[in-house]
Structures are given as structure tokens and as C-alpha cells.
Amino acid sequence: MGSLRDDDIELKSDDLSVLLVNPREQARILRKMDWHLLPFVTVFFLFSFLDKANIGNATVAGMTTSLKLTGFQYNIAAAVFFIPFSLAEVPSNIILKLSRPSRWLPSIMIAWGIVMTLMCLVDSYQSLVIARAFLGLAEAGLYPGINYYICLWYPRSERSKRIAIFFSAASVAVAFGGLLAYGIERMDGVGGLRGWQWIFCLEGIVTVLVAIFSLFYMPDYPETANFLTEPERLYIIDVLKQDSNSLSSRFDTQFVWQAMKDYKTYVQILIYLGLLVPGYAIALFSPTIIKELGYSAANAQLLSVPPFVAGAIATIIVGIHSDKHNLHGPYIIGGALVSLVGYILLYCSVQAGLSYVGVFLAAAGNYPTVPVILAWAGSNAGGDLKRGVVLAMVIGISNLGGICSSFIYIDPPRFHIGHGTNMGFLSLSIIMSIFAMWNYNRLNRKKEAQCVAENIGENRIYEFKDMGDASPLFRYTI
């Protein structure tokens, strides 16, 4: 874009005005972007969640017995992933801001793919813990990075459904992981490796190959995307500029401090934490929960698939409707309530069939809420750098809840401690979502009154470009 002359832009103005008033053209450009961007982020996230959660499938496939894990050793191995995973997310998003997405995100993927491949060589509890720690460190930047990447391309009203599409890959990953594990277990003994070792090895190799391909074909920014024509590029840049209220996009540490000092960031963290603990719990332990209902290990792998397929479908449907109505809080509350009913069934029921329905509801209710909360957090953080830091903080700090998820399923076969803990976290998310909706509405009314009292309009927009979402012209979504 830097090479465009002013008269070039003037010549394109007619095309731009047509695009601005033609909804069909707007939809066409968004679809074009989707085809070039979403396959990358969806595959990235699918492999991220698959490689992070496959320890649950490996356990059912015999890893616990092979490594002679006792007591809380499996729980510790599962939990240690989340410590470096959480701590490295803020610096990773800052690096992404200073570098290129097409280099940073695939590089992260190559790193964790190598670690995952080498996990087939672990032969003790100690080596498993070390491998999981390095896996968490390598994966740390991907999730906040992808969310930030989406924000660089799409306006706020279009983000929920896009985040929902790639996050549905999490549900597919858990479902596909069960099917994949069922098939890979048949390789037990091939090459001197057990079935659970082949799960790590094959999934890691495919991860590396996909990442290498992405290095050469992933677009960076609208300004440099060669798949966009000049009128399309101008349209996207203009829409993003208007959507951000022309807030600053430069790198300055003041925007980092804005994110860290904003109490609204911590409200979003509590909402996300309340969703992540039950989300990780059902992903990590669903094969174990189903197995304890009386099914064989192989059938438990297969029966873990349908609930997460339902979760993937529900995720996309909720994301589409969240964008359509430009609402976030009500969809989070609704999904959390559905998941809460599922955990209540799991807690109270002694019948295998009814408990399995509980697994369905727990997954199908929880998974759709995650992309909505991340779209909410990103949409209500003003300015590129602040948004990147807020997303990294929300995702990073909340992911420490994965440690909790790793230790709550300790009392088979009913798992009352685990199910009860998840019910408490879902209740926390519901309560904080209600508070956030009330608070954002209160702040919007306050800003509207300020604009009227001080005669603040779009003509003064550049006076507030460094204020982030504190700008009187910025409006929060509910």
C-alpha cells in the first residue's frame, strides 16, 4: 500500500464507494478472505488442540501402564503443560506485532510438532513431564496469536463466526483424536513402539509438515495480501480503520500498560476461566469418564467422538448468530447453562445412558462459548496493541485453569469432585458475564452523555486516538 499514489486512490474512489454501498460485494470480499485465511488458522488450531489433548487418548491406550504412572503422576504430567503455556502468551503476541504472522505462527507450529514427535520416546514419568512442559512452551503463542490475527483482518461484527469456525476445530480435534487413537492403537508393536507412542509420533510429524507448507502460503496483512485487488484492499483497510475509531496501531508500551491496568480485562479473564476449566476437563477426561460408565477402552475412544462433533456444530451455529445479533454475553450465559445441566446430570445420574447425555450437553454447551468470549474480549479492547495484549492476558492467565482441570477427576467412578468443580466454574462465568453486560451498557450510556455534553463527534476522532477503548467515541459490544 505504501507504493500507491494519491491519484491512484482517487481513481479507485468510485470502486470503493460501490463496495461500501453494495452488501453483495461486501459479502463477496469477506468470503474471499475466508477462503484464503480460515483454512490456515483452522488447521493450526485443530493440530494445537489435538496435540495438547491427545495425552488423554494415550492414557486410555496404555501409556499409564507402560510408564508405570501412579497416584497423581498423570495429573501432574497433564497440568505442567499449562504453566509455560500461560506465561509465554503475552510476550508471544508482542513478538507477533513486531514480526510477520506468516513466519511467527508456522514457526510455533514447527516447534511444538517436533516436541510432539519426540514424545514417542518418553520412557518414564520424569521424561513425560519435561516433554509436556516444552510442548506447552512451544504452543503458547498460537491461540492468542490466531485471535489477534483475525482482529487484523475482520471488523468486530464479523469476528465471532470466524473465531467459531476455527475453534470448532477444537471439538473436531477431540472427536477426531478419539477416532485416530482407535486406529493408531492397532499399530501397537510396529517398529517396537506401543500404540500410545505412535499416537504422539504420527500426529507430531503431520503437524510439522502442515506448518512448513504454511510458511510459504499464509497471508500476512490486508496491506500486503496479493489475493486482494486494489479496490478490495482499500475497502478492507477503510472498514478496519472505521471499525477501530481510527485508534492508534503503533507500538508503544503505554498501550501494554492500558491493557494490564484495565479492570475489564480481569472481568473477561474470570469469564473465560469459568469456561476453560470445564472445557479442558471434558477434553482431557472424556475417554476416562466414558470408560468408567462401563465401556471398554476401545469403545470409550469411539464414544468420545459424538459429543464433540455436536460441540463443533453448535460452535459454528452460535458464532453465526452472535455476529448476526452483535451480542456476546447472552450466548455465553446460554451455553454455560446448557453445559451446567450436563454436569448436573453427570453428578447425579447413576445410569450410563443418562450420564452419556450429560457428556453431550457438557461439551455442546461449553465449546460454543469460547469463541464468543474471545471475540467479546478482542472487540472491547481498543487499539491494535492493547487488543493483542488483552487477548494474550485473557487466554494466558485463564489457561492456568488447565492445571485445575488436570487434578479434579480423582474419584472414579462417579467423579463428584470433578463434576462439582466444573459446575462452580460455570456459575462463575455466568455471574461475571451478567456483570460485564451491565457494566458495558453503563459505560456506553456514560460516553453517549459525554459526547452530547461536550459536542464530541467524528470530526474530533483523532484527539482520542491514543485513549484506546476509553475514547468517548468507542462503544462496547454487549
Automatic annotation (TrEMBL):
Domain Major facilitator superfamily (MFS) profile: 37-447
Cellular compartments annotated: Membrane
Transmembrane region(s): 33-50, 72-92, 104-124, 130-151, 163-184, 196-218, 269-290, 302-320, 327-347, 353-377, 389-410, 422-440
GO MF terms, alphabetically ordered: transmembrane transporter activity
SUPFAM superfamilies (alphabetical): MFS general substrate transporter
InterPro entries hit by this protein: MFS, MFS_dom, MFS_trans_sf
Domain of life: Eukaryota
GO cellular component: membrane
Keywords noted in UniProt: Membrane, Transmembrane, Transmembrane helix, Transport
Protein name: Major facilitator superfamily domain-containing protein
Species of origin: Suillus discolor
